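Q: For a teaching handout, I want to show students what a protein-ligand complex looks like in token form. Below are the inputs, and the small molecule is alpha-D-galactopyranose. Please produce the holo structure.
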Amino acid sequence: MEITRRYFPILLSFLTLFSWSGVGRGQDPMLARTPPMGWNSWNHFACDVSDAVVRAQADALVTTGMRSVGYAYILIDDCWQGTRDDAGYIRPNAKFPDMKALADYIHGKGLKIGIYSSPGPKTCGGYEGSYGHEEQDAQTYSVWGMDYLKYDLCSYDGMGDQIPAYRKMYDALKQTGRPIVYALCQYGMQKGWGWAASVGGNLWRTDDDIRDNYFSMAELGFGQNGLERFAGPGHWNDPDMLEVGNGGMTDDEYRTHMSLWCILTAPLIAGNNLVSMSAATRAILTNPEVIAIDQDPLGVQGHRVTQEGPLEVWIKPLEDGSKAVGLFNRGWGAMPVTVNFRDVGLGDSANVRNLWTKKDLGRFQATYTALVAQHGVVLIRAK
Ligand code: GLA
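A: Here is the structure, written as tokens, with alpha-D-galactopyranose included.
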């Protein structure tokens, strides 16, 4: 028993190395060790994305302090593609005059850069996809200096089994020798969470596109319960990008959005205009204690422990033995929500800290109750 305990971690490291050596299959466990954090062009800019927009957002990621709390990836979504050259290599459209220069600029800021394509002939926006050009495209991304690829099913839907199509691009990326985070976007079809990591996915969308309103966000976020066993270091469920700051929700609702995504150990990909965001938006996106819940090294996705009508309690265990607990009110009007310490694996009493007000609240016996605003959250760390 003692021997097993002593040698198990060594055995585990060997197995990990073995699986990434190309002998086994599966995602690179050293990439996306914690859920990726960054900014993506789609939610705010959609097809109005350009080299200038991307540079300005990267500048803002730095000046707003987002880089220093962990946001690292600048992700170009759909609508960057032009036509292929005679040899079949993809070229960007006129809005992106020089992708390599853009990547150099992003890297020069200490950030990483990502790009977007589809296994089908066309992307969701009708631009050129990678079908039949997977190796060439992977090579091109690598030459440009891309660190992340979002691969969106789009027109491949209906063309055949998507699993080999996703594996094909993973193999092509791997052949380049460049570490490239691989983000599958197939909206949870065929229970993607069950196989996405085995075809190299570091993250995979679990559902349809998020919209900038409370009901869309809540349906996606609270709907993740039960998927926690599929996530872990290097491979994450992705309930879609953040809408924080895009204007369709109240600050209480955006705090719910951010808190829930952190309890879910979800990728934190901001989708707002960082250049013009308000102080309130910035505070929601950059609270280091809230982000620490998402980025906790244990990498365990949280889950729901109780649900009484519109009131829900969620828990995520943390590396230092403490628990992140979200007290959510999905209903109308403020309501008290109670967590029973026993339900979340705490002892008879616990020290409680409110992570949004950044206040230690003291030691509580058996339970903690907070008045939670409508559509709001009280997010605590307890031990
Ligand atoms: C799909 C994806 C979105 C975005 C668009 C781009 O809808 O789910 O996240 O990438 O395509 O066309």
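A: Two things your students might notice: Confidence is low (pLDDT under 50) at residues 1-24. The longest helix spans residues 2-20.
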